């Protein structure tokens, strides 16, 4: 994705100034659970499975991750957050992610749990509604 394009997480920033800076590495880590959630959504949108695996907690990370190229992620709505700030070790983000697939439109409503280990946030797991 072009760094000057609008970020898929819909923060209002460009991809390069928002989630792209986390995806491209260079030691930049998301400072909050919500920022990590947004960057993970954007990684789904741009097809960055390596970033998704790298930001998944080692305690729950799958061995591989195959993304469906036919799914187009279109919008992210953050519904609520609990903790997950720069001084917390755990956090919760509830969101709805809207997508389009060959079978039609859909949405994923999830309550995700995050943990901070070694100063970095990781996705732990989620419950879908």
From TrEMBL:
Q: Locate the YchJ-like middle NTF2-like domain: which residues?
A: 32-126
InterPro entries attached to this UniProt entry:
NTF2-like_dom_sf, SEC_C_motif, YchJ-like, YchJ-like_M
Q: Which SUPFAM superfamilies match?
A: NTF2-like
Q: Which Pfam families match?
A: SEC-C (PF02810), YchJ_M-like (PF17775)
This protein's superkingdom? Bacteria
Q: Which residues form a coiled coil?
A: none
Gene3D superfamilies according to UniProt:
3.10.450.50
**HAMAP family named in the record:** UPF0225 (MF_00612)
Family in the record: Belongs to the UPF0225 family.
Q: What is this protein called?
A: UPF0225 protein EDD34_1486
């Amino acid at each position: 994705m072009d760094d000057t394009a609008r970020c898929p997480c819909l923060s209002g920033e460009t991809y390069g100034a928002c989630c792209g800076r986390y995806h491209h590495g260079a030691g930049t880590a998301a400072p909050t659970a919500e920022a990590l959630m947004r960057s993970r959504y954007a990684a789904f949108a741009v097809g960055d499975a390596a970033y998704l695996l790298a930001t998944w907690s080692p305690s729950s990370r799958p061995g591989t991750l195959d993304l469906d190229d036919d799914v187009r992620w279109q919008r992210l709505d953050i519904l609520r957050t609990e903790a997950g700030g720069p001084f917390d070790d755990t956090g919760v983000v509830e969101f709805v992610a809207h997508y389009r697939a060959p079978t039609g439109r859909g949405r994923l409503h999830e309550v995700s749990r995050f943990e901070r280990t070694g100063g970095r946030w990781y996705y732990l797991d989620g419950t879908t509604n």
